[in-house]
Write a structure and sequence with these properties.
single chain; alpha/beta; Rossmann fold; nine-stranded mixed beta sheet; 10 helices; about 35% helix; about 20% strand; binds S-adenosylmethionine
Length: about 260
């Protein structure tokens, strides 16, 4: 159960007029009745399938490594990428948002990393659109007590947070699932404060054009998007980010940058 202070601190970051209700499991629900989650795609529907939330962290998420090639990073290494790319080692990073956090498998690690760095006033927030995923996140995070940690049930296409309100924004393994990925990406940029860091992991087109086209076509029926190598770095540079970096492992890209 999220503690009351984490919930209050999270609410204080919302835009004026965002309604929120606290559920019995401690998750803050900011969904508006008229905004149905985008459930038209098979991949989206799968993420709201209860049993997946139970096996996701141990059995499902490690399979993403197949997408990254045999020498690709393990999930543990990915977590260290996130900590580094988000600048959690910097003193000024206090408020961290993990968008499309699933069962909190990265969120908890980010919270523990801030606690290890003795960042006593840190707040980590996980946001996701799937009720089963967040119910699992709340359960598994009950023992993470050294950092304020809260979960929000909402839509990444319309984040409830004020502009420039978050010190570091993470979004791993999700942009390829949503029907409006560039809208979500714009939201990540909007809520990040100047000087704050963004870390994203998603798919990338690789290999000769014909192979990349075939791959994109093969995954399309499942609702997954395979992005171009410049899709996100271009947006960040146009938005005036500095220290924009991209690392590619197999058919996955890690993109990071600092907002100016
Ligand atoms: C593959 S999981 C990623 C979980 C975690 N970030 C990780 O790296 O393992 C993708 C998550 O994206 C969430 N998601 C999909 N569309 C979303 C949306 N529009 N708003 C918020 N979350 C969304 C799903 O519910 C799912 O939990």
């Amino acid at each position: 159960m999220a503690d009351a202070r984490a919930v209050d601190r999270t609410r204080s970051l919302f835009r004026p007029g965002v309604p929120s209700t606290l559920r019995h499991d401690g998750v803050l629900d900011v969904r508006r009745p008229e905004s149905e989650p985008d459930g038209s795609r098979a991949a989206q529907r799968l993420m709201r399938f209860g049993p997946l939330a139970t096996i996701y962290e141990r059995a499902w998420r490690p399979l993403f490594r197949l997408w990254m090639g045999v020498s690709g990073p393990t999930v543990d290494v990915e977590r260290t990428f996130a900590v580094r790319d988000l600048g959690l080692v910097d003193d000024s990073t206090r408020i961290v948002l993990d968008v499309a956090c699933g069962p909190g498998n990265f969120t908890r690690f980010l919270a523990e990393s801030l606690a290890d760095a003795d960042r006593r006033d840190a707040l980590v927030i996980g946001l996701d659109a799937s009720e089963p995923m967040l119910a699992r996140a709340a359960l598994d995070s009950a023992r993470t007590t050294r950092t304020d940690l809260a979960y929000v049930l909402g839509d990444a296409r319309e984040l409830p947070f004020e502009d420039d309100s978050i010190d570091a924004v993470c979004c791993y393994a999700a942009l390829y699932l949503v029907p409006d990925p560039m809208r979500v990406f714009a939201e990540l940029v909007r809520v990040l404060r100047p000087g704050g860091r963004l870390a994203v992991m998603t798919t990338v087109r690789r290999g000769p054009e014909v192979v990349a086209d075939a791959m994109a076509t093969a995954v399309r029926p499942s609702g997954l998007t395979v992005f171009g190598p410049d899709d996100f770095t271009d947006v960040l540079r146009r938005a005036g980010f500095d220290v924009v970096e991209q690392r590619i492992h197999g058919a996955a890209q890690f993109v990071t940058g600092r907002k100016r």
